[in-house]
Design goal:
The chain has 342 residues and is α/β, with parallel strands linked by helices. The chain has eleven helices and 14 strands. The protein folds into two domains: 5-63, DNA polymerase, domain 1 (Orthogonal Bundle); 71-339, Aldolase class I (TIM Barrel, Alpha-Beta Barrel), CATH 3.20.20.70. The strands form three sheets. A ten-stranded mixed beta sheet has the order 3-4-5-6-9-10-11-12-13-14, covered by helices on one side. A two-stranded parallel ribbon has the order 1-2. Helix 10 (265-274) packs parallel to helix 11.
């Protein structure tokens, strides 16, 4: 028997075409999409406005594609980290971050990551595969309290632009009228800047963009982020200058601060030169110590001085609050390798 297809991750057009092939009325496609994406059913037999006979026909070929988290950890600050099993038998981590008026889900796009950034646990895990659209969306739909989620960030495990097609389709389904009908501004994609797919993202999407910069000096950034060799940050920033950031979407730069590495006034000056005239904001992030790394977090005093310098230069610059560090859910700490599984 052929493996069943998952409805979660299919577009309305794909669902409609599939049900037509089964001899079901075309309008059934819209009914199914509503049950999957809006009413969030977990089983086909919950689709009560579809006849029992047609539900049986659907069940022979399709499954919803939902999979509950295997484990949930809760931080002292309220952040929750979930462990999901992929359909290929691998594992990923997803984080829910509650704020005053927001509930943000931090979604993974790959099992591990091939970028191998020096400061990131996910990169040190190695690359073990791209997530499917179903597996990406399942992190949203199967997270506890998912109905309250207001925002999504592709800042979990993996480099989103290294799995661009599936990330793009997942975003389109979240923003589709027959889906959750989210505004693209509720979604942020974080990337170290893979230029080819970044250009596609900029041309094809209206979602927000966050670029992981971390060092304004090319040679030093290369030592931390190997992808600097193939897609230098300077060339990525020049490309970003070609786009209008005043209305369509928000551009931000993520800057992890390491003690005596990139946190002195020299780096603040170089960063301000690199981003001069660009309509953007800068998020300063305290480094979270990980095993097998000699890097240490910058002091609070140095982070404040760094922020104040950039603010004086006219940038919107904030020090991002750390969330979920006690359960290894903070920036750069996600990895299933640390528990002996991938």
């Amino acid at each position: 028997m052929d493996q069943k297809q998952y409805l979660l991750g299919m577009t309305l057009a794909e669902i409609t075409e599939s049900v037509a092939e089964l001899g079901l009325p075309k309008f059934t496609g819209k009914q199914i999409a509503g049950w999957v994406y809006v009413k969030r059913v977990k089983r086909i037999d919950e689709m009560t406005n579809i006849s029992l006979k047609n539900r049986e026909i659907l069940s022979e070929k399709f499954d919803i594609g939902r999979s509950e988290p295997l484990d949930i950890q809760t931080s002292a600050d309220g952040a929750r980290k979930m462990l999901f099993r992929t359909y290929g038998g691998k594992f990923i981590e997803t984080v829910i971050i509650p704020e005053e008026e927001r509930l943000t889900v931090c979604v993974s796009s790959q099992v591990g990551c091939r970028m191998n950034c020096d400061f990131c646990m996910t990169g040190k895990q190695g690359f073990h595969g791209n997530l499917t659209v179903t597996e990406i969306l399942n992190q949203v739909y199967s997270s506890p309290g998912s109905e309250a989620i207001t925002n999504l960030v592709f800042m979990g495990m993996g480099e989103p632009l290294d799995n661009y097609e599936n990330v793009k389709k997942a975003s389109e389904l979240l923003t589709a009228e027959y889906g959750l009908a989210w505004s693209p501004r509720r979604i942020t994609l974080s990337t170290i800047g893979l230029k080819l797919n970044l250009k596609r993202f900029l041309d094809e999407s209206k979602c927000h963009l966050a670029v992981s910069l971390h060092n304004p000096v090319a040679k030093e950034r290369l030592a931390m982020i190997p992808a600097e060799k193939s897609t230098p940050a300077a060339s990525v920033i020049e490309m970003l200058r070609e786009y209008d950031w005043s209305r369509q979407r928000r551009l931000s730069f993520e800057y992890i601060m390491f003690d005596r590495v990139n946190d002195s006034p020299l780096y603040a000056r170089e960063l301000s030169k690199l981003l001069a005239g660009l309509d953007c904001r800068i998020n300063l992030i305290r480094f979270h110590v990980i095993p097998a790394s000699n890097l240490k977090p910058s002091t609070g005093e140095n982070m404040v001085k760094f922020r104040d310098f950039l603010t004086a230069k006219g940038f919107i610059c904030t020090i991002r609050a750390s969330r979920g560090e006690d359960i290894s859910a903070a920036w750069g700490m996600l990895s299933t390798a640390k528990s002996g599984i991938v």
